[in-house]
Write a structure and sequence with these properties.
79% of the residues lie in helices and 3% in strands. By secondary structure, the protein is mainly alpha-helical. Helix 1 packs parallel to helix 3, helix 2 crosses helix 4 and helix 3 runs antiparallel to helix 4.
Amino acid sequence: MTELDDVKDDLKPAAFTGASTALMGTIGGLAPAAVHTALTAGGPISAAWLITTGVAVVAAIGIGQGVAAAAMALARGTGTRYISPQRGFLASLGVGAFNAAMYFVQMAVPATELGWVPDLLILAAVGAAAGFFAVHEPSGEPVEA
C-alpha cells in the first residue's frame, strides 16, 4: 500500500472529525451568543445585529476548530495509527462543551477575557486536541501485510 492510499483511507474519518468538531463547536457557542444578545440588546434592530454577528463569529470559530481537528488527525493518523470516527465525535462533543463554558465564563467574569489573539489560539488548540484524540493506536502487535 502506498502513502497516497494511506492518505485516501484517512481522508473520510479526518473529514468527519473536522465536520463534527465544526458543528459541535458552533452549537456550543450558540447558547452563550443568545444569552449575550438577550442581555445587551436595546431593541429589535440591535438584537438582530448582535445575533447575526454572534452567530457568524461562532460559526467561523467552529469552522476553524474543525479545520484544526481534521489537519491534526491527518498529520497524526499514519503508520500503525488510524483515525477513529467515534473518538473524533466524542472529542467534538468536548470541543462544544469547552466553547460553551469558555464563552459563559468570559461573559460572567469579563476579567477572564484575554483578547482575540489568545482566545483564538486557545480555541484552535482545543480544535487540534480533538483531532489528536481522534487518532487511535492499536494496543496489539502490528500486523505485517
